[in-house]
What does this fold into?
Amino acid sequence: MKTTSIIAFALVIIGAIVWGLVGFFNFNIVSMIFGAGSAAVVSRIIYSLVGLSGLWLIFYWCIYNPFKAVE
It folds into this structure.
């Protein structure tokens, strides 16, 4: 499960960088590399993996809350 969380964390960071580029500079590097539109299956897969990674990290945080008090 540690490997899954590390991969998910890396994908979420990459996704945050991509959305930062879109927000600040209106530059979508994923669509530039893999294509845009409905025919860009690879772009949709990448966005789906980033979204699933975010959901995984939410689940992981809820189960193994690092901020709860140690008794």
Summary: Helices lie at 2-25, 29-34, 41-63. The chain has a mean pLDDT of 84. The CA atoms of residues 9 and 53 lie 7 Å apart. The first helix runs from residue 2 to 25.
